[in-house]
Amino acid sequence: MFGKIENPYIFTDNEKKLIRENYSVHTDWDNNVFDDLKTNITNHLRNEQNNECCYCRQELGFDIGDVHIDHIIPKSSYKEFGFTPQNLALSCHSCNTAKSSSKILKRAAIKRYPTTGSNIRIIHSYYDDYNEHIEILDNVLYCPLSAKGCETIRICKLFRLRTIENNKRKFQAKKNKSTQLVEAARLCEKNSPFYKQIIEAIKNL
Question: What is the pTM of this model?
Answer without folding.
Answer: 0.79
